[in-house]
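The authors assume throughout that readers already know how a fold can be written as discrete tokens. Each protein is reduced to its one-letter sequence and a matching series of backbone shape codes. I therefore recommend that a typical entry be quoted early in the introduction. For illustration, here is how one protein appears when written out as sequence plus structure tokens:
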Amino acid sequence: MSTSLIAMGVAAFLVINLVVGLAALSLLFGTFETLFGKPKITLLRSSKSGNIFAFGFKWNSAKEPAAIDNIRLRLFNPFGSPTQVEVSKPFEQKKSSFAVEVDMGPGFIDLLGAKGFDNALIQIEVVSSKDGVVFQFEMKGPKFKKLVFDANQTVAEYIAQNNLDTKKTSKAVNDIPTRSFIADTVPGKGPQLKLATNPVFAGEFAGASAGAPGAAAAAAGPAAQNFKIAKVWIEPGCIVCNACEDIYKDVFEVLADTCIIRPNAPLDDGLRMQEAAEACPVEVIKYTVAS
């Protein structure tokens, strides 16, 4: 046998082994991803009775970041009654694996009690309203009912078993601390800034007579005059930072994915409305002043 034939045989053997090795490695990683990398929902035992749906959810939040804030259950029951039921409920944002108990309302009982449930399909959606991310799971009606009623692990046990950090904040990234529209009174003790707006030194600046009544107020300028609002609205682009609701809760209500104006909101405090609009980081609060 010639040397060239031997070399070709060795090369072919090495190539075959390389291909087989790569295929095995790919299969191994695929199996690992299937077993450990995919999002997983676990139905848990509720500590309360009624319409409570308890579940734990694990996903790779580093690979697919999302602020989970809603659970949605759908019943598809073409051979029973009702043929379709959908119940959903928002909850506090979760940015990593978690477990919660959610009151789904009376619709949850209607879903479980549907006629023909054994032939129905249940769809579970774990949703991030803000990010538009939906993790979807499907199972037959009997399996869903069995998991709901036979669950023996509680939310607390699930959290402990999976070492979940319940102390992580779930506030929006753009959370803004509450701010006061009018600055606090300058303290009478401690270091003082020698400015015209500081009442302590108001008499030392031009246009103010030392010791004259009202000198400090004159130096600081006239108080802002309040005004009424004719109309207020929210333009698209709200990032649900809660700043407006913190400032003027009677007018603004922050929901899971936007902000709304409360029904019959008072419009007689223009200064506070102005403060809320100026505090909005994306400037979507608009209003007109009453004439």
Q: What stands out?
A: Residues 31-36, 168-190, 208-220 have pLDDT under 50 and may be disordered.
